[in-house]
C-alpha cells in the first residue's frame, strides 16, 4: 500500500484483494445489483447523503419518440 499526503488529506493507494457481499444483494448471475445494494452517495458541496434512485435506462440505448428504448449495440 502507498500512502500519499495531499495537503491536510491522506490518500491510500492499494490493491483490492477480495470483495464480500451478502447473498440478498446478488443477482441471478452472482454479481451485485445496485438497486438491491441501496448505496449511499455523499455530496461534499451540500454535506448531504443521497440514494441512487431508480434506473434511468440501459447503456447504449436511445429513447424513441413513442417512449420505447432501442439498443444501439
Which helices and strands appear, and what pairs or packs with what?
Elements: E1 2-6, E2 9-13, H1 34-37, E3 40-43, E4 48-51, E5 61-63, E6 69-71
Antiparallel strand pairs: 1-2, 3-4, 5-6
Q: What does this 3D model show about the protein?
A:
The protein has about 70 residues and is mainly beta. It has a single domain (about 1-70), classed as Pnp Oxidase, Chain A, CATH 2.30.110. Helix content is about 5%, strand content about 35%. It contains one helix and six strands, in the order E-E-H-E-E-E-E. The strands form three sheets. A two-stranded antiparallel ribbon has the order 1-2. A two-stranded antiparallel sheet has the order 3-4. A two-stranded antiparallel ribbon has the order 5-6. A hairpin with a 4-residue loop joins strand 3 (about 40-45) and strand 4. It is extended and about 55 Å long. The mean pLDDT is about 85.
Amino acid at each position: 500500500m502507498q500512502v500519499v499526503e495531499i495537503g491536510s488529506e491522506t490518500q491510500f493507494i492499494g490493491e483490492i484483494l477480495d470483495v464480500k457481499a451478502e447473498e440478498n444483494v446478488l443477482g441471478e448471475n452472482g454479481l451485485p445489483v445496485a438497486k438491491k445494494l441501496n448505496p449511499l452517495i455523499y455530496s461534499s458541496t451540500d454535506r448531504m447523503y443521497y440514494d441512487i434512485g431508480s434506473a434511468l435506462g440501459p447503456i447504449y440505448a436511445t429513447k424513441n419518440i413513442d417512449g420505447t428504448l432501442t439498443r444501439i449495440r
